[in-house]
Amino acid sequence: MNELERIVREAATLVAERSPFLLATVVRVSGSSYRRPGARMLVAGDRWVSGCVSGGCLEGDVMLRGEHRCRDGAVVVTYDSTTEDGETWGVGLGCNGVVDVLLEHVAAGATHDALAFAAACFAEETTGTLVTVIRSTAGAVRVGARLAFGPPCALAHPVTDPAARSAIEAAARGPAGVVELDGLGITVLVEKIAPSPQLFVLGGGHDAVSIVALATSVGFRVTVAGPTIRQASRFRAADRVVSTGGAADRLRALIDAAAEPYVVIMHHQLTPDRDALAVALASRARYIGVLGPARRTRDLLAEIGHPGDDPRIHAPIGLDLGAETPEQIALSIVGELQAVARRAQGGKLRARARPLHARVALVVLAAGGSRRLGRPKQLVELDGAPLVRRVATTCVEARSGPVGVVLGANAGAVARALGDLEVAHIANDGWEEGIASSVRAAVRWAEASKADALLLALADQPLLTVEHLTALRQAWLSGAPIAASRFSGVVGAPAVFDRSRWDALSRLQGDQGAGRLLRAEDVAAIDWAGGAIDVDTADDVRALGGHAPANPPG
After folding, report:
1. Which of 406, 401, 519, 518 is nearest to 458 (CA)?
2. For the XdhC Rossmann domain, which residue ranges apply (predicted)?
């Protein structure tokens, strides 16, 4: 389970014991910091219980002085390590950053709103949105008040002011992060509360024990499953151990019930490995790792009649760490699982040129009038989903930072096509000028989001993948000022632009895209054959097997 799940569990024990406690939450960070907004720490009296808010710099002060500071109500304390003044806190801050921590006292037997809502999200295996007031000059709204969107949950300290509620509801529909509510004197933290990813270890051999223990320790909930599991007591670290009796339907149901499932196959026997691989490929699993050499996996895929082109398949499994022992192999496998879950490459951090927590704002340009097609190409349906939603969903799943969509022509219909997707709607009333107006709108939004780089994608690129977006981000993290896509002999979108290039983007005019910037010598070009497929004409729609709406919706 992840850190928040552990805190929820420990807090429930304290509530049952009628013990008061202190909850500390990182709500804003500027500069370098060990933890990010949403990190929490649970303290009971002078006893640390679970979680942390730094790498050890702040915990002592929170434990010693936190209770005193919030005795009159929730309060945000700022720890500034950018100057020598940080020593006045009596802690050795070594992060060279500014960290705001929300301190809240919870009385004996009472529950905490954030933890109660998180518990509801975990129980229903769903993601919810929690919005917390972290600054307020409005008398009707207190620091620590919240609104929650997701599973039903009664809040002890909800936001009741109508204007604030309306603004918070709008903020909740956008990406996670700190949001200033314009004109209200209120700042909020928007969090996406999600259950831990679930790892299904299919096979109960002795080498699975190390994988289960390590995966559990880094935040996965783990299920060990197989036709027959002998000596289940070896897997005490697992959340559950299941003997399926070879019932494929039961195994598939377990995997598909998880919000974020990952699968490792390691029976060490051909038949159960083959059957498990078939089930995993038919499931919602985001990752399918198969122990053993690549040739063996290719043979298994051939037996079940699968071409083997599924990007979820990882065989051989794991990172190249020179692993030999079961414990080392477990480290290799769980390291790869963590990298895939966080959309990271698993390389050495010293190879990165960008900060550890650098964020990329991803913007889908969807404001155009589709003059060549004659109908809104953003709404062309492919496999039952409008193109704009397909592309925006891929950007969200890349987990690189906040996601926005620029709206202009047919803004209402395009917004409806996005539905409840957690993306910001970026208005571009001057869309008729051309694509430059949308690029400028994207830059303004990225600046407001305090991102370090901006990725521009087009709404009519149906073959866009998370893997390609991750490769572009990785090229930027490695130092490229611009990382762009190369296809059919050209370099184009999607492309990542470092903040240092935003001024040039902001000077674009008319129907001028970023082509001149993309032709510079310092651009890192990442090959992507899918970029050759876009939607401009009716022939393009027919070639994709898509469906264009007969009339532009209003």
Report:
1. 406
2. 199-337
Q: Do β-strands 146-149 and 128-136 pair in parallel, antiparallel, or remain unpaired?
A: antiparallel
Whole-number Å distance between alpha carbons of 493 and 515: 9
Residue 423, token pair as written in the block: 């993306």
User: Tokens representing 50?
Assistant: 């679970």
Distance CA 333, CA 158 (A): 43
- Contact between 97 and 34 under an 8 Å Cβ cutoff? The reply is no
Contact partners, residue 271, CB within 8 Å, separation at least 6 = none
pTM of this prediction? Answer: 0.75
- How many whole angstroms separate alpha carbon 21 and alpha carbon 14? 8
User: What are the backbone angles phi and psi of residue 335, rounded to the nearest 5°?
Assistant: -60, -40
From residue 404, alpha-carbon distances to 122, 129, 418 in Å are 27, 17, 11
Distance from C-alpha of 80 to C-alpha of 97, rounded to nearest angstrom: 6
Residue pair 430/437 in contact (Cβ under 8 Å)? The answer is yes
Instruction: Decide: 361 and 454 in contact? Cβ < 8 Å.
Output: yes
pLDDT per position as a tens digit, 66-93: 989 998 999 999 988 665 554 444 444 4
Cα 286 to chain centroid, rounded: 14
pLDDT tops 80 at residue 362: yes
Neighbours of 400 (CB within 10 A): 25
Give the CA distances from residue 441 to residues 362, 408, 444, in Å, rounded to whole numbers and listed in that order: 12, 11, 5
Exposure b/e, 496-534, CB count within 10 A at least 16 = b: bbbbebbeebeebeeeebbeebbeeeebbbbebeebebb
Q: Using one digit for the tens of pLDDT, what is the confidence trace for 29-63?
A: 886 677 889 999 999 988 999 999 988 888 889 99
- Whole-angstrom distance, CA of residue 296 vs CA of residue 443: 48
Which element (helix H / strand E) includes 525? strand 523-527
Sign of the CA dihedral 287, 292, 294, 297?
negative
* Rounded Cα gap, residues 443 and 142, in angstroms: 33
Helix axes 466-477, 387-397, angle to 10 degrees: 50
**Residue 15 and residue 109 in contact, taking contact as beta carbons nearer than 8 Å:** yes
Beta strand ranges found along 329-390 (DSSP E): 360-366, 381-382, 385-386
Integer CA distances (angstroms), 203 to 259, 270, 271, in order: 22, 12, 12
Inter-residue contact 298 to 308 (CB < 8 Å): yes
CA 504, distance to chain mean position in Å, is 29
* Residue-level pLDDT at 534: 77
3-state secondary structure 459-508: CCCCCCCHHHHHHHHHHHHCCCCEEEEEECCEEEEEEEEEHHHHHHHHCC
